[in-house]
Specification:
The chain has about 290 residues and is an all-alpha fold. The protein has helices spanning about 5, 15-45, 55, 60-95, 100-115, 120-130, 135-160, 165-170, 175-205, 220-230, 235-265. The radius of gyration is 27 Å and the shape is globular.
């Protein structure tokens, strides 16, 4: 048996020399295309004089910096409210979908499917215009209804993915369904659910930018105000170049936080396997005499 055959897995075989060379060629070509696109974008930016001092000097003004910081603070505030409420709503709807009572399960299913199918912007506009709600509550409510319904499916799928024997063993010990879900299924499902939960929270963070459509003074709205008051050509490009890295940084920070939490969970003594000492030759089994 060759080393490649011994190292093969149930999902795929170890690629041979020809396949490795082909994959290397694909990687080189993809990298060249990406670098070419990046160089082309840089050329367009320099060609349109986007890096001249006149277009970047306004960002050194204290008033513009305060406007951006205020918009960033409003964005983080809307995201914090939406994230907490979405997690709570998702947990409630997931419990409803897992309920043994058919009417509760049907109601939860209808709510989840309805809010998942509705565009976020439509819900925000409906709450803001039809219900005459203030911009911040309207934005948070729309984000909560959509992301909460998506997270409900994430929670339900994660809990159902736990091995069936864990559930049966807990019931055999006399635990009630609430105890089984809270103390047995949910802690084990968190590991599988965490990447998807963080991904959905990143979506909620990016969707806070929809607030500028209902005059909520968030980060993107602040950038729009700045660009509309600049008196040179293509004023939105420098503003986007300032705002985009901040959004990307916040999303990367959320991803890093998810990785950190997952690493801490793996080191948690409650989730680590207990080591068992190897049996010695003189070990006597229970009920047997030496």
């Amino acid at each position: 048996m060759t080393h490649a055959t011994a190292s093969a897995t149930a999902l795929y075989d170890i690629p041979g020399p020809v396949t490795r060379r082909r994959h290397l060629l694909y990687g080189i070509l993809s990298t060249a295309v990406i670098l070419g696109l990046f160089a082309w974008v840089l050329y367009l930016l320099f060609d349109t004089d986007q890096f001249t001092s006149a277009k970047w000097t306004p960002f050194t003004y204290k008033g513009i910096q305060e406007l951006l910081l205020r918009g960033l603070g409003n964005t983080l505030k809307a995201f914090a409210y939406a994230a907490v409420l979405s997690l709570a709503l998702g947990a409630v709807l997931a419990v409803g979908r897992l309920s043994d009572h058919r009417p509760v399960r049907w109601i939860a299913t209808v709510l989840v499917e309805f809010f998942r199918a509705m565009p976020v912007l439509v819900m925000i506009f409906f709450i803001f215009i039809a219900l005459k709600v203030q911009p911040l509550p309207a934005l948070v409510a729309g984000l909560t209804l959509y992301n909460g319904s998506v997270l409900a499916e994430v929670f339900r799928t994660g809990i159902n993915s736990v091995e069936r024997g864990q559930r049966e063993a807990a019931y055999a010990l006399g635990m009630r369904k609430t105890q089984v879900t809270t103390h047995v299924l949910a802690p084990q499902a968190v590991r599988a659910m965490l990447p998807t939960i963080i991904s959905q929270l990143v979506v909620a963070l990016k969707d806070t930018s929809l607030g500028y459509l209902i005059t909520y003074e968030e980060f993107l709205h602040a950038g729009k105000l700045i660009a509309s008051n600049l008196d040179y050509d293509l004023p939105f490009i420098p503003v986007v170049m300032v705002i985009s890295p901040v959004y990307i940084g916040m999303c990367m920070l959320l991803s890093w936080f998810a990785t950190w939490v997952a690493r801490r969970q793996r080191r948690n003594p409650r989730t680590e396997a207990t080591g068992v000492a190897a049996a010695e030759p003189e070990t006597v089994l229970p009920g047997r005499h030496p």
